[in-house]
Write a structure and sequence with these properties.
Radius of gyration: 20 Å
Number of strands: 2
Order of helices and strands: HHHEEH
Shape: elongated
Oligomer: single chain
Strand content: 5-15%
Helix content: 40-55%
Number of helices: 4
Number of domains: 2
Length: 103
């Protein structure tokens, strides 16, 4: 009984870490907040990711995408990359602005 009490926490920790490793091996990243498109990258200030999207020939000016809640405040927004970059630099983005109209 005493051996089970001593062995259980390390085994549980190993199982948790192994589960995250397997999830990441299959492409699921539960703790990663990577931008999904050029607009999210611009809003988050992730310049390297934004440049990677641009290098992959992402449509920048004409593409309006829906940003997930939490990227620019608590509300979801539909913006293009330029608007996302501008709004990402403003504190307190929970107010509605003209660039949140649907495409």
């Amino acid at each position: 009984m005493r051996a089970a009490i001593l062995i259980a926490p390390p085994v549980a920790a190993f199982a948790l870490v192994a589960g995250f490793e397997v999830a990441e091996a299959f492409g699921f990243q539960p703790l990663s907040a990577q931008p999904a498109n050029v607009s999210e990258a611009a809003a988050m200030g992730a310049a390297a990711a934004a440049l990677r999207f641009i290098a992959d020939k992402a449509r920048i000016r004409t593409c309006r995408v829906r940003l997930a809640p939490g990227v620019l405040g608590t509300l979801p927004r539909t913006v293009d990359a330029i608007d996302a970059a501008i709004l990402g630099r403003r504190p307190g983005n929970d107010y509605p602005v003209a660039s949140t109209r649907r495409a």
